[in-house]
Amino acid sequence: MFAKTKKKVYLLLDPDKDASAAHHLINDFIIALILLSTLSVVLETVEKIYEPYKTVFKLVEVFSIIIFSIEYLCRVWSCTCNEKYAHPFWGRLKFIFSLGGLIDLLAIMPFYIPLFGNFDFRFIRLLRLLRLTRFFKLGKYMHAKGVIFNAVRSKKEELVFSFIITISLIFVASCLMYFIEHQAQPGKFSSIPETMSIIVTFITVGYGDTYPLTVMGKILMDCISLLGIALFALPAGILASGFIAEFKKFKNQKNICPHCGQEIE
Asked: Cα-flanking dihedrals φ and ψ of residue 173, to 5°?
């Protein structure tokens, strides 16, 4: 009975493709709450929005922390259902110090432990969005005509994943730059959304009238500029490989007899 309950909890938090609708519903709820709490952290930096709705932001924060705390404890308890963490003690310890375990822990830790200075670590919760990739393990694709559509369709999972990575890194970089430059330039780096527009300017057109003044800010901006090149090259490479594969298929289909299925020499 105890083992069955633990297995059910494990599947509720990490449903597989054969899991019931209830399992996926709970997982979707967690994803929605991650998005809501992340949006809340970003909008809190905009005074015009934050001041009139302080109570709403506080309720969202408390509610999300309660749910994430319960989720984290349930994950630590049920992780032994996974063969990687099968040992009752060492397995749980391994899970806690795994990448996913650390991200889960960092997402709730700031609420319970006093922060060092004025630096807010809640933006790390954004990394939890990477869990969305579990929903992009698509099985069958719809049949469609056209090499271009087929190329995009065949690389849909990779393209969506690269898009999520790009958006997540822009959010994280904006949060970091805001906390580094806000005190030095409160007028220009006034909020995370404002900082985000500056970051996007740097990684797209490559110039702007606003730039970091602190040493850490300049180092971060250099890294962001280099990262921007890689982020734009990634989907281009994915599409290129998709086009090559589809053109090869198209060429092979032309050399196959439609009646007998044999290759035409």
From this structure: -60, -40
Classified as helix, coil or strand, 6 is helix
In a domain, 69, yes or no: yes
- The reply to whether 132 falls in a domain is no
pTM of the predicted protein model = 0.62
> Taking Cα atoms as reference points, which of 112, 74, 111, 110 lies closest to residue 92?
74
Same domain as 121, residue 5: yes
- Reported as a single tens digit per residue, the pLDDT across 44-77 is 888 899 899 999 998 988 898 899 889 889 989 9
> Does residue 245 share a domain with residue 145?
yes
Residues 146, 115: one domain? no
Work out the burial of residue 207: count CB atoms within 10 Å of its CB; fewer than 13 is exposed, 13-18 middle, 19 or more buried: exposed
| Residues 154 and 109 occupy one common structural domain | no
State residue 73's pLDDT score.
93
Q: Given its phi and psi angles, is residue 78 left (phi above 0), alpha (psi -120 to 50 degrees) or beta? A: alpha
Q: How many domains does the chain have?
A: 2
Query: Are the beta carbons of 136 and 160 closer than 8 angstroms?
Result: yes
Dihedral (Cα; 132, 133, 135, 136), 10-degree rounding:
140
Question: Is residue 133 pLDDT above 50, yes or no?
Answer: no
Instruction: Give dist(CA 161, CA 155) in Å, integer.
Output: 10
Residue 71 · residue 13 · CB < 8 Å: yes
CA angle 165, 134, 30 (to 5 degrees): 90
Q: Which domain holds residue 161?
A: 138-265
